[in-house]
Amino acid sequence: xxxxxGHQEALSFRVFIMSKQVCICFHGHFYQPxxxxxxxxxxxxxxxxxxxxxxxxxxxxxxxxxxxxxxVIGQDGKIAEIVxxxxxxxxxxxxxxLSWMETKHPETYRSILQADRRSxxxxxxxxxxxxxxxxxxxxxxxxxxxxRTQVRxxxxxxxxxxxxxxxxxxxPETAVNDATLEVLIExxxxxxxxxxxxxxxxxxxxxxxxxxxxGQIDPRQPYRCFSKKDPALFLDVFFYDGPISKxxxxxxxxxxxxxLAGRLESAVIDxxxxxxxxxxxxxxxxxxxxxxxxxxxxxxxxFVLAREKGYRIVNYGEFLEENPPELEVRLKPxxxxxGTAWSCSHGVRRWKDHCGCxxxxxxxxxxxxxxxxxxxxxxxxxEMVSIFExxxxxxxxxxxKARDEYIEVILDRRSAAIRGFFERNASRxxxxxxxxxxxxxLEMQRYAMLMYTSCGxxxxxISGIETVQILxxxxxxxxxxxxxxxxxxxxGFTERLALxxxxxxxxxxxxxxxxxxxxxxxxxxxxVASYFAIGSIFEDYYPQLENLDIYCFRLHNLYQRxxxxxxxxxxxxxxxxxxxxTHDEKDLIFVAAQIGFxxxxxxxxxxxxxxxxxxxxxxxxEQLHRGHIVELFKMLDHHFGEGYFALKDLLLEDRxxxxxxxxxxxxxxxxxxxxxxxxxxxRINEIYRSINLPIPEEFRYAAxxxxxxxxxxxxxxxxxxxxxVRRVMPAYRLMDxxxxxxxxxxxxxxxxxxxxxxxxxxxxxxxxxxxGKIHESLCIFKIAKRMELELNLxxxxxxxxxxxxxxxENPQEIPAAIVQxxxxxxxxxxxxxxxxxxxxxxxxxxxx
Length: 848
Known about the structure:
By secondary structure, the protein is of the alpha/beta class. Helix content is 50%, strand content 13%.
């Protein structure tokens, strides 16, 4: 085919597409399992997520944040636009993930909400965001009450965050059966998104059924699914394009936006006059986390190629309003009517049985533990239902209605919201103690649902991080059951867990996992008191010592005395601890002792009498100053009992902070030693190099440590001086010294420091443009290049790009003085990979 014929064919295809109204929709299911410690309501450090604090943080940096600032790369290979992908794609966020993001990354959280608001203006009032069942429970396997609460909580959470009703609800793992459909219809859900193989048959309304059970249902149009209870009621179903979705998620379709466009074009058929929808649904984490820079390919397609090719970007709600279904669908019932899902070819057995679906691990590992795990949790759930109904009925008008509305408290734990909740749901005025009892009952139910989070069954081994997490939620629920009713459920639960056999001999079974990996995390108010008691031994460990928030607790420091004698520091005091979740509180006395450098012990007991406390204080400090440590400990055992908390009982985060403080002085001593070794043996090192012999390893360690420290100090000195080019030689000489000794200086800290300095200079330039900040920024780039450092440019790119965009849209704001340093500004934009074509034109006009 010659070039002209090819051009004509491409033009004809574009006219065909535009005339047929080909609509495009990408849906991203953005979700992470809840990872918060069940007692502290915060995520502990997860070493497997290194170098990030935890997996939420890691995936946020790789996916969620970049998607709100996706780079559109122009023909020149430079950044032509920075866009928010959420403005042009359908999406749902797991409620527990969005709650985490609101606290940890509020700016990105606001960008996501803003993207939905903008999409409503673009799509005739239909927003891109849809809701999700609350904590990713497999709904067909839930009992009726949990199913309804999961749906209601998901819809309520969406309403709270996005300020509107959701038209749809993402079903965890797209798992659905008849019971789930009926609840969705009753709760007003308009449409759902499913995988093609979940359809069994389709037909024109009142026509003959056609078998589509092998996945051949046409995904280009919506379908209607009628209620079996009341045929007048229905919801609509979109079946995403399976092959395209699979290619995005598991193949290389995101490697190139043009390749993606070509794949979408292949899905377009001659469809008559009716518009057709080409759409895909994948885990949202595909874009950036699973597929590096996948958000860029998506951005280029959505913001550039789609327009060029005449595609119309829609969301499901908009398309459905314009194109109501003309066909009815019947879904597969699945085994025993339990339904089907997108990630299990056996219905929903992945979350209850050894079905062959697995994730990672040795090939000979089994998943027969799944069934006993679910059975144990079902037993525990049912036991807690009895407690909730019997205890809760003394306080609530309707215990299950109260649980459904408890989402309002979860979303807003301020006093006014809690008061309003009880005014609507309590059968009478409650005392503070009764209010705490009610909150504990409701928290027990919250954890009774969190323990069914689907990830607990998804992978290969019962001792995996995801299953340990849901067992931790079960442990918290067990603790709350005991607090509210005195009922002890742990023995019965672990007896049933023992039937869930582990693949790891160390754990043996689910009971071993529970004992070794879960019970060590169980915490009480006494634990929290020990965190404060040990931590406050150190000056400035806590930013304040009165009305202090530690995790989800408020601590009131009522009295504290700290003294040292010999190598023992004694920290004595009284605190009142209040849970900000359940309002449970205790008045406690603590005594924390630091013995030597690394040994700690902390005893805690209830405060009973001021005179007793004063007498105890006198005895303890007298014994401290006598120097009889053994007698001091005997006294502690006598007054507080033999049990105590040690450093190992703190959360990992606190342990790390304390160990860092304790070792700081020792590290300084080691550093000074290395300084002496390096300086005293510098000549010897040069001799080794002059005769081409490697320097001794002991000298190498010293040289690496010293040169890295001195180089960082040199960079910091340059920063204080404003990065003058004429003063960079000392830093270069340090690098040359390292190279001459064949010493590899760790580049990560240096790159991180210079990246932050670059961003600060660019931010200052954006706030008040002047040539000085440009020159400093260019100097930083020169230093980084000489040191072979790879800088993180993202924040600097964002700031400068948005300034240039503003100038482009409002040329009158361009400073007249910019003409004098325009060339240097263009150099900086080149270094930041920003396209400067449009700005050059504007500057030339300004100059004229």
